[in-house]
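Example 5.3 — DUF1652 domain-containing protein
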Amino acid sequence: MISTLELRRIVETSFLPLHCQCTVGHDGAMTVRICDPSSGRVDLFVTGIATRDLTSARAIGELIAELRYDLRHTGLTEEQGGRRSRER
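Solution (predicted structure tokens):
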């Protein structure tokens, strides 16, 4: 299994130049927060990602692809404050 630190690094650097912050709780659930670096606006906030399922490069790549899809397609209008969050 990949270490939590390495998993966080892979996911966080996948969204550069946006600011991506990953945290992993004691229960192994990961939270991903992706923000616009200039405005600080949160563009995507996802909770409850089971890290126990992220045991291969393919699984991590699929998670990143899902997050990118959500980042592009789950947005609210700018008047509504950016993008909505979702629980995975």
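Remark. Helices lie at 4-13, 57-73.
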